[in-house]
């Protein structure tokens, strides 16, 4: 997991089901976690955002809600982010139990019974989450117009790497026909970039070009002058976006990053299951 001087803290507080269902206990536990972290001077999450409230295994894996059309997008985000890019900072055993519960909620009655099938439920929810994220960024563009250059830059680099890391694992998992659940569980401790690099290597490809684009992103976004330039867009700046040097350079870099990920994915046609590509596109 990468970290820079300007990084914020995306922290999921996970409680027992009983504790989460008691507002007083849940709010107190959440507050005490952040109080313990206060010496680190970390930025608090947005009051209405994904990380602004605690969760629990039942909250994330309730069969009545997973995939439901009216499921709270913040619950969807918590569940998918657990699989996409989390690492435990406390109680490793409970973390493993939680991850297993989330994976099983997508596998039950399908790939756990017939491992020649694909992770269709998980793939669809992954796509749903990422596209909802893209739509949310579009909403933010209209309502918080001044912040769009930085958010768009992150979307096309770190958010895409997060999404691509799990997507490529699911593609590679299409080759597994014995135990897809165990196969995926063994690889979820890898970070998004580790997942991408592992999948490249597993297919005899060099990941250096892709990592070069990402290194450029991390290097530039860590510079205070670049973040300042990307955070002070003027009204109607979208029409003149390529006149913002920092934005143009990082947009060009992201084009290369996206193109390389797309090339690698499409090049797996004929290797990965045709069903995987069918579900991915249609």
Overview of this protein structure:
The chain is an all-alpha fold and 282 residues long. The protein has a domain at 109-281. Helix content is 61%, strand content 0%. Helix 10 (208-221) packs antiparallel against helix 12 (245-266). The model has no long low-confidence stretch (mean pLDDT 92).
Brief overview:
This protein has 282 residues and is mainly α. The protein has a domain at 109-281.
Q: Notable features of this structure?
A:
mainly alpha; 13 helices; globular
What order do the helices and strands come in, and which of them pair?
Layout: H1 17-20, H2 23-37, H3 57-61, H4 73-85, H5 92-107, H6 120-143, H7 148-173, H8 180-187, H9 192-202, H10 208-221, H11 224-230, H12 245-266, H13 274-281
Structural class call reads mainly alpha
Overall helicity: 55-70%
Radius of gyration: 20 Å
Distance from first to last alpha carbon? 32 Å
Oligomerization state: single chain
- The strand count comes to 0
Number of helices: 13
Largest sheet: none
Order of helices and strands: HHHHHHHHHHHHH
- β-strand percent reads under 5%
Shape annotation: globular
Overall average residue pLDDT: 92
Unreliable spans are: none
